[in-house]
Amino acid sequence: MTETKNTSIALEKKGIGKMFDSIAQNYDFLNHFLSLGIDKYWRRECIKKIGKRGDFPIVVDLATGTGDLSIEIAKRLKPSHIYAFDLSEKMMSIAEEKIKKLHFENIIETKIGNGEEINLPEEFCHLVSIGFGIRNFQHPEKGLLECHRILKQGGKLAIVEFSTPKNRIVSSLVRMYYNHFIPFIGKVFAHNRKAYCYLPTSIYNFPNGETFCNMMREAGFKKVSYRSLTFNMVNIYYGEK
Question: Which of the four, 41, 126, 222, 227, has the lowest number of CB atoms within 10 Å?
Answer without folding.
Answer: 222
